[in-house]
Amino acid sequence: MRRQKNSTFPDPPDLPSFTIEEDPEATHKGPEQAPPAAFERHANTGLRRHDVTLDEARIDADAAKIVRRLERAGFQAYLVGGCVRDLLLGGKPKDFDIATSARPEDVRAIFRNCRIIGRRFRLAHVFFSGGKVIEVATFRQKPVAEMLEDELAAAPEAIDDLLIRSDNVFGEAHEDALRRDFTINALFYDLDRQQVLDWCGGMADISRRAIHTIGEPAIRFREDPVRILRAIKFAARLDLGITPDVVDAMVAYRDELAKAARPRVFEEILRLLRAGAARRSMWLLWESGAMAVLLPELAAFLDDHEGTDGGANRFWQKLRAIDEKTARQGTPLDDIVLFSTLLHEPILEACAEEDDKIAAAYEFLEPIVERIAVPRRISDIMRRIIAIQPRLEAGRPGRFARTELISPALDIFELDLISRERSTAFVDEMRARVIEENGGSFPTRSPRPVRASRRRRHHT
Ligand code: ATP
Ligand code: MG
User: Fold this and answer.
1) Is 201 left (phi over 0), alpha (psi -120 to 50) or beta?
2) Do 97 and 200 sit in the same domain of this protein?
3) Which of 73, 180, 232, 351 is 20 to 30 Å from 108 at the Cα level?
4) Distances from the Cα of 326 to the Cα of 236, 319, 384, angstroms
């Protein structure tokens, strides 16, 4: 789309591949394999069962315990969503979610270590030692607001009532599968029968490593435009292809993202940066045009590659460095580091010609903070950290070195040095010095907030 013919432009990241190889772990058996009469569940729901033996060693033992206990109590219970997808693709699930026919009260009656959360969207949380929480959700239908769009338009007075009830309308397993976003996210795993239950062709999409919405992409993205960001996240993180009709709908409906709940959008952008595939995610965000809707300042900066004095190039290098560091340390980087680094280059550009750099940074960030609901906690710290960078460069962090911001500030500085192909030994030395001066660890003291107006007066 906007890729420029310039030899200095970084190689595009490896875009998600689109393969049609069969997944060796997935043993397909056709629907002619009728389920034994003993569990004539889900009759006439269009279910396909696939016999698949997932390695129990990769399944969370507590999650398995919950599933088995619910089944023993006479309920249906399955592993669902991301964990099934990740296990089938050979990855390591982040967490294990369970869907069940049991109501939240039933779940609480069975597990002592259980709490019901949410008012409209009630879920059971089962707690284990070490702070582990496993979410057990009762099968639900598609929200009424989505299901009855036309009917609601005809009877607007019913909307409030329907919306309140809509989130918590319990349903059958197949309804719970079909309300989900992508086919690969809608697979249920029956632990004891060792079967993947598939109502929407998710298994075929796992095999060909493809992302496809359940149903019409245009409808599903309009229902919830955050799904556009989720498609990018799964493609980038799991190295999957997005089918062409889905890509077309993402591009066609990208403007809908402006209507999405802003905190959800911000959280989803952070997830794109945290998952170890920040570079590929941002590339897809840019290429799809979704970046121009959510972060037009950054999209324009990248579009004008020629005019950024290498800034666009450094931007991609920084994202590469973020991904490498994430892989090395095995956990995501601090949100402050991620979001500051995302905007560092355009901020530097915006401040370059200005005397009052803090005020210029404020001016640059303000519309972004508004548009995607960046929490003040993050935006204030970002401005402080970016303002301190020249002092870090000079090796003189001063009192700042005694605040908790020094650690993310040094990370951001390090990423900047990497993007300029300069040595980072200097940062390592500074880190060691800060830790030594602070008695063996990074400081944890919060800095005093600095108001823009106060700083501005000092400078002018
Ligand atoms: P991750 O590994 O990032 O947690 P996940 O697939 O588990 O990926 P979650 O956000 O934890 O993603 O959501 C759990 C499940 O809920 C998804 O697998 C999907 O089935 C369903 N889901 C999440 N968000 C949506 C959405 N916006 N629309 C429809 N279904 C959704
Ligand atoms: Mg999840």
Assistant:
1) left
2) yes
3) 180
4) 14, 10, 24
Protein residue with least CA distance to atom 26, ligand 1: 181
Is the separation of the CB atoms in 255 and 293 below 8 Å?
yes
Pocket flag, ligand 1, residue 226 (CB < 6 Å): yes
Q: Dump pLDDT digits (tens) for 80-127.
A: 999 999 999 999 999 999 999 999 999 999 999 999 999 888 999 999
Same domain, 56 and 183: yes
Q: Which of 214, 243, 261 is the last residue of a domain?
A: 214
- On whether residue 335 sits in a domain, the answer given is yes
Q: Is residue 118 part of a domain?
A: yes
Active-site annotation holder among 86, 106, 176, 181:
181
Q: Is 181 a catalytic residue?
A: yes
Q: Residue 103 belongs to a domain with what CATH number?
A: 3.30.460.10
The pLDDT value recorded for residue 306 is 87
Q: Which residues pair with 114 in a beta bridge?
A: 126
Q: Is 160 a catalytic residue?
A: no
204 and 59 together in one domain: yes
In the reported structure, the alpha carbon of residue 123 is separated from the centroid of ligand 1 by a whole-number distance in angstroms of 15
146 Cα to the center of ligand 1, angstroms? 17
Mean pLDDT check: name the lowest of 29-43, 99-113, 193-207, 314-328: 29-43
Q: Is residue 6 part of a domain?
A: no
Give the pLDDT mean for 155-183: 76
Number of structural domains, the chain?
A: 2
- 406 within a domain of the structure (yes/no): yes
- Is the Cβ–Cβ distance between 206 and 23 less than 8 Å? yes
How does pLDDT run across 190-215, given as a tens digit for each residue? Answer: 999 999 999 999 999 999 999 999 99
CA of 36 to the centre of ligand 1 (A): 31
- Is pLDDT at 457 greater than 90 in this prediction? no
Phi, psi angles (nearest 5°) of residue 97:
-100, 150
pTM: 0.86
